[in-house]
Structure formats: structure tokens, C-alpha cells
Design a protein that fits this description.
Length: 221
């Protein structure tokens, strides 16, 4: 193997080490917002100044994880086979809620992407994220249209609702220590807030049924 190939291989390995370290730390620390460049570099065994050779900032590192989350979500959705009968709207919603719930870090990052991550990197990095996210979105929409009774615009609306609900409900369901203590004092609030998967599924199913029903109503003349 020549020097250039070894260098590229080493860089790829170091990049993966940093991404894995960030992912593990997000899980250990209670969310991506607690991840720091210093902690990531230490966990990956890389000098902090050397980390800049791989990612220019924490935001670029986390945006890479969000982009990979889109890829993984697409893989999970496309792996759901169609049956002899088309999925009902509620079943299509179930596919989206079940698959995205398997990706906790992605659920968390969906809040941070529009707030800071994609706006705090250079334009070309933001462009790459958008291209890959929209490609995944389009692939999932085509697949769900093919295996369900929902039309293409209806599926697109449902995926958009999934993203919005996930970004909100995930943060609510993973409260700060202050809120966690408050929920212990008022269990009703905690019960409403902390059930991420159940709330997501319920709201998505209701949305899917409503979106589809609206499409069946003939427009007023």
C-alpha cells in the first residue's frame, strides 16, 4: 500500500473514531447538546488540535451524524416490504414512527439541525447535508406511496409531520434534571411528557388518517 492510500485509510479510521465517540457521549451525557470537542477528542484518543483536521467544529461533526441518521432511516423504511394488501394510513404512520424511534441520536439531532448545525457550517457542507437528506426523504416517500393507499403528496405531508413531531417530542421526553425533578412532584406532567414512542405513534396515526380522509373529500364546486 502506498503512502497516499495509507494516509487516506488512517484519516477514514480517525473520522469514524470521532463520530463513534460523539455518538457514545451523546448517549452517556443525555443528548447531543452536552457533547464537546474536548470530550470527543479525548474519547477517540486524538489531540484536540489534531481533531480540526477531520472536523472544523462540533457543529460539523454533529451534522455528519445527522446526515448518517437520514441514511439509516431510509434503509429501515425501505426494508419494510409491501404485503398483499396496501398499508392503511395508520399502518404507514406506524412504519415511520417505529423506524425513526430506532434511531435515538437522529431523533435528538432533528432539533439541533435547523437551530444551529446546518447554519453554523460552511455553505458546501450545508449543501451536502441538504442533498443527502432530501434524497433520503424522496426515497422514503416513493416507497411508502408504493406500499400504501396514500398518495405522494399525502406521504410527503406525513413524513414532514413525523420530523416535526419527533424533534419536539424527543426533547420533551428527555428532560433536564430540573424538569425530571418537577415531574416527580407532579406525575401527571411526566406521564404526558415522557412517553415518546407512544405519543409519536398516536399522533402520527391520527395525522395519517386525517390527511388521507381529506384527500377523499371532493372539493367544493
Amino acid at each position: 500500500m502506498n503512502q497516499r492510500a495509507r494516509s487516506a485509510e488512517d484519516k477514514a479510521r480517525r473520522t469514524e473514531d470521532l463520530l463513534k465517540a460523539a455518538e457514545v457521549l451523546a448517549g452517556e451525557l443525555g443528548g447531543a447538546r452536552h457533547v464537546t470537542v474536548t470530550a470527543v477528542a479525548q474519547r477517540a484518543g486524538i489531540d484536540q488540535s489534531g481533531m480540526r483536521r477531520y472536523f472544523s467544529s462540533k457543529e460539523e461533526l454533529l451534522l455528519e451524524l445527522a446526515e448518517r441518521g437520514w441514511t439509516r432511516w431510509r434503509e429501515l423504511v425501505l426494508a419494510v416490504p409491501g404485503g398483499p394488501d396496501l398499508f392503511s394510513p395508520a399502518e404507514a404512520a406506524g412504519v415511520l414512527s417505529r423506524t425513526i424511534a430506532e434511531l435515538p441520536l437522529f431523533c435528538d439531532l432533528l432539533t439541533h439541525v435547523p437551530l444551529s448545525l446546518e447554519g453554523d457550517v460552511d455553505m458546501e457542507r450545508a449543501r451536502r447535508y441538504k442533498i443527502n437528506a432530501f434524497a433520503a426523504y424522496d426515497d422514503m416517500a416513493r416507497h411508502l406511496e408504493a406500499v400504501s393507499v396514500m398518495s405522494s403528496p399525502q406521504v410527503a405531508d406525513l413524513i414532514t409531520i413525523t420530523l416535526a413531531l419527533t424533534a419536539n417530542l424527543w426533547q420533551v421526553a428527555h428532560p433536564t434534571p430540573t424538569l425530571a425533578a418537577l415531574y416527580e412532584q407532579v406525575p401527571r406532567w411526566g406521564h404526558v411528557a415522557l412517553e415518546f414512542a407512544g405519543n409519536l405513534t398516536h399522533l402520527l396515526e391520527a395525522s395519517a388518517v386525517g390527511i388521507h380522509a381529506r384527500g377523499l373529500v371532493a372539493p367544493a364546486s
